[in-house]
Amino acid sequence: MPQRRRGRPWRAALVVLVTLGLTIGAVNVVQTLLRTPTSPLVQRCIATDGQESVALDPEQAAHAALISAIATERGLPARAVTIGLATAMQESRLANLDYGDRDSLGLFQQRPSQGWGTVEQVTDPVYATNAFYDALVRVPDYENLEITVAAQEVQRSGFPDAYAQHEQLARLFASSLTGHSPAALVCRLAEPDAATTAALPATLTTRVARDLPSVVMVASGTDHLLSVQALTPDGGADSPDLLAWAVAQWAVATAHETGVGEVVVAGQHWVRADGGRAAWAPLPDGAVGVDDPVGTVRLR
Asked: What CA–CA distance (Å, rounded) separates 56 from 185?
């Protein structure tokens, strides 16, 4: 009679214990993953020409938007914006610095001792930008000069060739912020906090009055309508739709500060809540804003 094999109950118990351990381990892994916070959104503003893309952080983009808006208000060409952005990138990385070489200060590192203005003036981005353009437009044929040459005529830098490294970034942001490249600038932004949202009407009013004083803003419920008609120069050198795209992409580039959640223009919209996949897209049929008049930008 064959002897009965022993130990099977122990092997069965071992299988149960191993299976139980694996199950508990899997549950722990899932719980750990659920407790682990997702990586924070990297906030960036991106300009593209369809082939290449360049990026700025939201603070830099807001300063770029101001530099472009002032040029638009003055009726200056996109080339002036490209020169201004390349210069500010080299001088300050598009930050309103309160320090610099010797007494250099602000976006363009202008020196009070060299006649650029007082400390308070050169650290005011609006004053500094206008002072830069005042000097640029006195440079003969600046529109046709290389970036390095035009910028050096204004800045008198010890490193004149350094401006060239920012030409691509400056050109793509200038093209979008002046409206020449529609739907070419988007920002990937986190949702604004409650205080920023509550202050949106006041903040937006102040920012439009500072950057684009010729733009007419009218509140319509929770929306804010911007009309660019007053920006059109005598005879209409720039069309209302081009200027509307300039204002719309200015609004995207400043949304981090103002709290704007949606920008609507020419039947398209940028939505802040899209986060990581931020892009311009057509408005759905029948949506509010799809039939807005040419030259109108709707902000929400």
From this structure: 11
* Spatial CA neighbour of 111 closest among 95, 91, 126: 91
CA distance 13 to 250: 69
- The least confident of 32-36, 49-53, 272-276 is 32-36
pLDDT band at 39 (very low <50, low <70, confident <90, very high): low
At 63, list the tokens. Answer: 């300063």
Residue 270 · residue 252 · CB < 8 Å: yes
Tokens at residue 128, please?
């500094």
How far is Cα 125 from Cα 107, in angstroms, rounded to an integer?
Answer: 7
Strand partners for 263: 270, 299
Amino acid type, 298: R
Q: Give the integer Cα–Cα distance in Å for 184 and 176.
A: 6
Predicted confidence at residue 210, as pLDDT, reads: 97
Q: Map out the domains of the chain as residue ranges.
A: 44-177, 185-299
Instruction: State the DSSP string of 189-237.
Output: -PPPPHHHHHTHHHHHHHHHHHH-TTSEEEEETTEEEEE-GGGSPTT-S
144 vs 153: CA distance, rounded Å = 13
Which tens digit of pLDDT belongs to each residue from 187-235?
999 999 999 999 999 999 999 999 999 999 999 999 999 999 888 765 4
Q: Is the pLDDT of residue 76 over 50?
A: yes
- State the Rg of the chain over Cα: 27
Q: What is the pLDDT of residue 231?
A: 86
